[in-house]
Specification:
This protein has helices at about 10-25, 25-35, 45-60, 110-125, 135-140, 145-160; strands at about 65-70, 85-90, 95-105. With about 170 residues, it is of the alpha+beta class. The chain is globular, with a radius of gyration of 17 Å. The longest helix has 17 residues, at about 145-160. The structure holds zinc ion.
């Protein structure tokens, strides 16, 4: 049976559906049908503006963000949903936490829905550190249908790694 490392938290029946699509070589088709578009947020500067725009809409009073970037070295296997790090830096004798949002570079070429899902996830971490109930409620508030999108994004990561039925 194909192990689906991005989908281990989901019910076995759902995982089996994905396995079925993989077996039939139809996973790419499933994704292409649902997510045919590609977003235009290509530079770190554009990504920063995109993140700040969403933050302004939903999390105006949350802590500020110092830096936003696409990170080509981000380990998608371990950190499938980006990194949220507070980098400590000494500034004027004081230790200051620097808030960065890093988005795995592969999401540069992804559907707009997936970029939005990743960014919403990272923004929600400004309020909630853990993946708890309040965290997911906030995600759903910022992006209705968040849960389905996170599932589909994990399916997308699975498909990318299989690389089997990519359109030519
Ligand atoms: Zn997270």
């Amino acid at each position: 049976m194909t192990p689906l490392k991005y989908l281990t938290a989901y019910p076995a029946s759902l995982q089996d559906q994905v396995r079925g699509l993989i077996a039939d070589n139809r996973l790419g088709e499933y994704l292409a049908k649902r997510y045919p578009e590609r977003h235009a947020v290509q530079s770190d500067k554009a990504l920063y503006a995109y993140v700040m725009d969403l933050k302004q809409q939903y999390l105006r009073n949350a802590p500020g963000i110092d830096k936003v970037l696409y990170d080509s070295k981000l380990d998608v296997v371990r950190k499938a949903l980006g990194l949220h790090t507070a980098v400590s830096r000494v500034q004027g004798g004081k230790l200051k936490a620097k808030k960065e949002i890093r988005v795995a570079a592969l999401f540069r070429d992804a559907a707009p829905e997936f970029l939005q899902m990743i960014v919403v996830h990272e923004l929600a971490h400004l309020r909630e550190f853990d993946h708890n109930k309040a965290f997911y409620q906030l995600c759903e508030h910022m992006l209705p249908g968040y849960h389905q999108l996170e599932f589909d994004l994990r399916v997308y990561l699975t498909w990318r790694e299989l690389g089997a039925d990519r359109p030519v």
